Amino acid sequence: MSFFPASLENLIDQFAALPGIGRKSAQRLAFHVLALPEENALAFANAITEARRSVHCCKICQNLTEGEVCSICQSDRRDKTTICVVSEPRDVLSIERGHEYNGTYHVLHGVLSPMSHVGPEDIRIKELLHRVAEEDVEEVIMATNPDTEGEATAMYISRLLKPFQVKVTRLAYGIPVGSNLEFADDATLNRAIEGRTEM
Could you tell me the residue ranges of all domains in the chain? Predict the structure, then answer.
């Protein structure tokens, strides 16, 4: 038996369906929304509706944008000969925060995952191959996560890119800055040794 009205239960269920939100957090969010002044609650609802209606994929890199082409692809300051391949749009933000990378991106919107029934046709691989075939690309950087699915996706795409004779690189992995060697696991230490650079 529910202690809350059906509409409140529905709101809690909608919040609970979001990633990383448990039932108690969903309840807190629902009560917060109910406590908002009506104009704030409507602004919140409108923001969701507007984002859902306006945001779509860039026709070049598949990143999220409101226009036909995103600001990174439009920029004349970006190095168009390099493409950094990431799994999700949020990964673009992570790399951009470092202010080091000046190339373009390609967002796959997922990774290969046979357990979740995600195959090559379910993510944006063919769009990447089209770009490499049509544009003057010299290097493709595989920046998928260093987990099983991310590694499998990077390997699969690197094999598909072989005929195009572009340089395919993988992000280096190793010891995080500011950490101690004693706390690093064996796989991380091995990656750090393999990816060592000359000083």
Answer: 6-54, 78-167
| Cα 63 to Cα 89: distance, rounded to the nearest angstrom | 6
Residue pair 174/190 in contact (Cβ under 8 Å)? The answer is no
Q: Max Cα separation, the chain?
A: 67
The CATH code that applies to domain 6-54 is: 1.10.8.420
How confident is the model over 103-158, as pLDDT tens digits?
999 999 999 998 999 999 999 999 999 999 999 999 999 999 888 899 999 999 99
Q: Which of 121, 122, 88, 81 is nearest to 104 (CA)?
A: 81
Q: How far is CA 47 from the centre of its chain?
A: 22
Q: How many Å apart are CA 167 and CA 163, to the nearest integer? A: 11
Report whether 14 contacts 33 (CB < 8 A): no
Q: Does domain 78-167 have CATH number 3.40.1360.10?
A: yes
SS3 138: coil
Its pTM stands at 0.83
Contacts 24+ apart (CB under 8 A), 181-190: none
Q: What is the per-residue pLDDT across 14-36, written as a single tens digit (0 to 9) for each? A: 999 999 999 999 999 999 999 99
Long-range contacts of 175-183 (CB under 8 A, 24+ apart): none
Ramachandran region of residue 161, left (φ > 0), alpha (ψ -120 to 50) or beta?
Answer: alpha
